[in-house]
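Re-run with default settings, no changes from the original entry. Doing this only to confirm the output is reproducible before filing.
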Amino acid sequence: MHILVTRPEPDARTLRESLEAAGHRVTIEPLLVIEPCPPAALPLDGITALVATSRNSLRALSAHPDLDLVRTLPLITVGPGTARTAADLGFSDIIAGTATARDLANLIGDRVTVGARLLHIRGNRVAYDLKSDLEARGFAVSEAIVYRSVPTAALSAETGAAIRAGSLDAVVLMSPRTGEIFTDLMHRAGLDDAASNLLYVCLSEAVARRLVPLAPKRIEVAAQPNSEEMLALIARKAALSAAKS
């Protein structure tokens, strides 16, 4: 299949490598650009644990002067992928969730003493209000915005031409925001009809809902919200397509 990967870099390259190893043709079209913007000093006074809901939040701290200090704290991550990034940066006391912020709140409620003071390192936009959820459970939560996600202004000419010509088979969408951006870009490029014929492989139902204005004919949602399940889903759809041809 010819697959469009919409993740920001560097995760887009990692996903492309996995898909190409499986025999697919891949075009990368990042719909967000990640810009690190950590504060000069992190608000760490009294903090007993860190919470990270994306790999980008940890990458934004990779050269931060407080990195050695934060690595001494327990770190709770949204999923195993973020946990691996944390381990690569030298964190050792890591608790990994199952990949959604809502589930992460439940994990913290089960594993962390109520009243603990947590620091959520995050981007400028979040899909789930983790702070309010945790505060309702009795935790004290501070936030540090350490990166911005900036939407792309337009599709590349290559991607637009591939969609218009029908040479693209599938689009991989990993977040509700990228689903929303993709839908908007299709409208602005006048590609709604062509876009409705694509196969959309979505990380979650929340991502899939952002595509409703395009009236897509084929949407598939991963059984679990992680890269491994996305790859498994693509493999199943490719095998089914090959069997029909």
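The first helix runs from residue 11 to 21. The chain has two domains: 2-33+152-244, 43-148.
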